[in-house]
User: Fold these one by one.
Assistant:
Number 1:
Amino acid sequence: MQACAETLEFEKAQEYKLKLQRLEDYQSRSLVVNPKLLEIDVFALISDEKSAYVNYLRIKDGAVIHSQNIQIQKSWKKPMKQSSRW
């Protein structure tokens, strides 16, 4: 990037700068939990009156390599009244 700027190749220097920023952004989002954790799947579940929430993490070599969050809407239906006529 610096060499391109010195030779007045500013467009090329800007491309390198953007690539470097993207790599830094990616690296900052890669969370390392613990290098001693080899392969672990982690599930968390929390629930309230209307919804349940599930969080899933896949950890490999101490880093989170996949995560997924799911919201499940609860729909409780009242039971139908039974007819007393038989």
Number 2:
Amino acid sequence: MTLQEIQTRIESNLKTTHVQILDLGGGDHIRAIVVSTEFAGLPLIKQHKKVLDLFTKEINSNEVHALTVKTLTPEQFAAL
């Protein structure tokens, strides 16, 4: 799975205002930074689950060995 495919899947399934995908090494260790209005009011674990659930098949098959997620609301992102 390419970085662009990961980004496209996230953008297609969540109401995002910013998505950044980084390869942390080897193509199977990925970091996704996702900013979405859908995260407002949700605990961090549920925010991460919304993203990780999009890649269940790829994680289970080890196509994506490790997907680290950083989630933010637009307000949190603007404050950085």
